[in-house]
Fold these 2 entries.
Entry 1:
Amino acid sequence: MAREITYQTAINEALAQEMERDPTVVVFGEDVAGGMEAPGEDDAWGGVLGVTKGLYHKYPGRVLDTPISESAYVGAAAGAAASGLRPVAELMFVDFMGVCLDQIFNQAAKFRYMFGGKAKTPMVIRTMWGAGIRAASQHSQALYPIFTHIPGLKVALPATPYDAKGLLIAAIRDDDPVIFFEHKVLYDTKGDVPEEPYALPFGEANIVREGGDVTVVALGRMVSFAQEAAEALAGEGIDCEIIDPRTTSPLDEDTILESVENTGRLVVVDEASPRCGMASDIAARVAQEAFADLKAAPRMVTAPHTPVPFSPVLEDAYVPTAESIAAAVRETAGSGAPAPA
Amino acid sequence: MSDAVEKLGMPKWGLSMTEGRLVEWLVEEGAELAVGDDVAEVETEKINGFVESPAAGILRRRIAAVGEVIPVGGLLGVIADASAQDADIDRFVEEFQATFVPEEAEAEAGPVPETIEVAAGRLRFLRQGEDGEPLVLLHGFGGDLNNWLFTAPALAEKHVVYALDLPGHGESSKDVGAGDLDFLVGAVEQFLEAQDLRRVHLAGHSMGGMVAASIALAAPERVSSLALVASTGLGEEINSDYIDGFVAAERRRDLKPVLELLFADPGLVTRQLVDDVLKYKRLDGVDEALRVIAADAYPEGRQSRVIADRLTELDVPLLVVWGREDRVISAAHAERAPDTAQVHVLDGRGHSPHMEAAGDVNRIMEEFLAGVGAPARP
């Protein structure tokens, strides 16, 4: 039965239901059993923010606290996956990927291809991302474009509690390595989520709002900002269609292209920095595949090309807002070829 | 109707509807209307529907603009006789708009679905209405109790209406055992038993009609009347594109054209409807449940059971409703109902007339049920 729960609870429920269903699912990472201020693992806080709370006692021996050594336990996850388990490793902040990147992109991502399709690597790396909690530049980045760039990895980026549960279950059941991005500011957001388990297929975008004037593609936390912008713009007579790709690899290009075919105008909103990111990637794909449909140049709304500032004032100015999205939509709506009379 | 000025208001379809968007006006200002005429098309979060004229008269004003979002109960237009003065109509509009207060979104929670455990598993149902003989509504293959969102509230005025999620559907258990008709019939019988419903009116759509008819054939003394809406069981033919397509579709773009087969007007299938069905289809166990049920009921693109002949022996008042443009089960099947049945084939409607022509179907069912309750003539 659907009821309203938080994004954080949805993730916890997905883990619990998959551990219940499949004894090969194991969870490990820094503090996933114990955690903040815990005297030991028996405290079972369940991670720095309590996302894995309750799993340690429910599934004895299957929730493991690891040393502070990402290269060791992410490598262990890749090996466990290649030899029969379905590990869900937690990289506390995606910003720590630098110390375990070889295990991810040279090992996990390559096994299936380097062993002639005979190996599979059903591992998930859950990781927190995003600005907005005054955690400064080493704990606030939006690094999914880097993983999206690497063939052999899948990348999910849920924006709602419903998507978080369904995408995480799909990630755990997937036979390829999946990097699962959880926006820390979204943990407390609520939404309707069915109690029963369900898998949300990768590569299917969510059409968050239908509209005929401008296509707005938004990811993660930016989806709700785009919705806010669309509400304001509706009052001005600009009707936005909002598309949340939900996974960046694979990417549901068809839904985006079909929408642009209809609207002729595109704004991509991305919390990541602007160079070589999802915004530039999607804008380029649309420019190539739907050039004839475009009535105006695609626009990108992104963070600036700078580290996330620690100053609260600067951090707030760094993250795209409903206002900056609305401004970009107005610009594209008012530029380019006029609508046919 | 003398000088009376009637409001054409935004209807409330289903429990969660708080507002609707005017898609288009279907008649011009000045057009003559009969009660029940389609006047406008309205889009809600769940589905598009037609607003019907509540009165006979002339559509004197179209107040709402195309594209405008109007709260439930809000003013779409004004109906009055030709003799009504323009000034009176203007005053009516002015007074209405000055005093109208939309209901609070959460103010009336209304009835919420309940669940019950029976031998066949967990069953979800929605009970509406306070008094009257109980009426049980059974949805079709792949549907759920929400398919009756336009039907149940209307019929609940004179009946206690139970809309049920069949096993494998909605939020009922997804384990359907052998998935055959006996299992589905057994689940409904267990439900009736558990709710202590000893004698009920039964209505079923499509596969739900077959379930309802089977219960009536097995225990006619427990069934006051039987209403079959575009039901299976009256002939072998069925559009396997629908059954196979519904089972196979995993994505929006595959499912939408399949759902469009349910209606004569494919525009009624909204994004929200497609998303809701997809959310159901993704639940663990649903795929298996649908495959098992379909393999038993519709093997090789045919209906495995035809009970049209047995219905002639049935001593229970029988109503058969169909949409002329049904693209899942041909409306020709309505002709195979026994002579004793009341048969209505609705022009311009498809496989889901209770959703597509809710007003008409509600009236037909209300009259049918009222007739059943009337004392037999001497």
Note: The CA atoms of residues 3 and 303 of chain A lie 34 Å apart.
Entry 2:
Amino acid sequence: MMDRLGFLTGRAARAILILFGVIVLNFVLLRVAPGDPASVLAGDQGAADPAFVEELRRDLGLDRSIPAQLWVYTKSLAQLDFGQSYREQRPVVGIIAERLPATLILTLTAFGFALAAGISLGSMAARHAGSLLDTVLTSVSVMFFAMPLFWIGLMAILLFSVWLGWLPSYGMATVGADLSGLSYVADIASHLLLPALTLGLFYMAIYMRVTRASVLDVLDRDFVRTARAKGLKPGLIWRRHVLRNALLPIITFASLQAGHLIGGSILIETVFAWPGIGRLAFDALMQRDYNLLLAIFFITSAIVVGINLVADILYVAADPRIELGA
Amino acid sequence: MARPREILSRNPGAAVGVALLAAILLLAVFADLLYPGDPWRMAARPNLPPFSPGYLFGTDMLGRDLAAGIAHGARVTLLIASAVTGLAVAFGVAVGAVAGYFGGRVDDVAMRFTEFFQTIPSFLLTVVIVAIVAPSLTSIILAIAVVSWPQIARVVRAEVLSLAGQDFVRAARVGGLSTPRIIWGHVLPNVLSPVIVAASLMTATVILIESGISFLGLGNRDFVSWGYLLGTGRTAFRVNWWLSTIPGVAIFLTVLSLNLVGDGLNDWLNPRSSGRGKRA
């Protein structure tokens, strides 16, 4: 038991170290950039306002030594104080909090779809290994693996919105429709479908590959052979022996992918004008609102680190055989 | 080790990949001969659809020949991809070799460092680096290399770790060879094949990342890559669908060919590894 507590403490310490690393990275980037950090952070619009730049300079403690500056920066980020966005004239943290739910809806739907479809298609391919079905499924996953996500999104818009006219391609809800209750939910769902499926497809292809390999590996083990020799029903062997063991590596792998999924949503949200933090990052990029951009980077990293930590805890709780050394 | 010809006949995907990649490389090399002059000049009437006489892929809203753009874009895309791969392999091999050879504390620190870059959202990091350090060819190459090297480092570290304890390394040490010479001359040559495989697969990912960055408009206007073409075509893609469809197909085919070649190299160079599709 002590062992596990030690393991989790180690993981928590590592998570904090990673977040501190992100802070240092932001700090270094701001100093590598041309111009002084205050004018970089202020962005194009803010830099024209001497009072705003002066205020930033004071907040960042730019008249002090470098270690003191890093300390000031770390302290403010740890308190979730990311300063003001000049363009919006309000604290950055509020802007991000407003946009976070939209991104969570999008990424969670995409993740759920990718896991469900990837695991079922991957096990299907493994159970019929070598068949035509396997070849087709494997080829499809190889294809999706090679396509830029945002391009799949554009093609989906062309096909389903422009040509067929089945689904909306823009935003999260119909503008000015003033819907409520169930029809409001249906409206959001119809807007969600294309971006979530697009974002999920790439990850579906990955999970499919991992599941196929993992299931094939387990099918080969002695305990499956024993179960077959005992005369257990195939369905029971599949559920109790194969799938449960095959799923473990997939779960570890999927939690590691969480960061990519959230980070990748910047392209999908841009293509579909989905009002989440990805789209916000794109807008910040276009308007050179770097204070906002760096805050999005920090908060996204924090979310990813948090997800990985939760996955570690779940893993320790779920599997008593887990090796705690690593 | 099986001969390349056997591998290609056993793995038809690899054969397709090699042929595709060769065609794309030729297109990049001979872009100037095929489409001489500035590919961004106004060549014909605007908005010609694909398969118009003389303009295979049509023209954009300014009358620029998309086929010329694709041919010259192949150069930029492949140039960026090879520069990133070179940098990432050099750095990844260095970190991985040092971590694996020395082990212990050094390994711990190196692996925490590697893990850091694998954990944080990599695409967002490249965007942040390129935007803040100022968009240019150099910053794009550096930024993608920063998020790409960890894979190589992990592969090299694992291999070196298993080699460092073996007799031939011990013998070299007893023989009085210097550590850099042991690593460079005796350990690293044995790591070459997995690195080649990892690097070819990484190049595919690099092209995808680059296309995303350029698509967001962070690319360099003087070096127009396929992602950049896709991004500029997007503004009119509901009407002129080919402007973003065709560069996307070019990216897809290149990435696909690199993945297939990587798989083929894996079959050839690491015959013991259980590649996908082997157990069928």
Note: The first helix of chain A runs from residue 2 to 32.
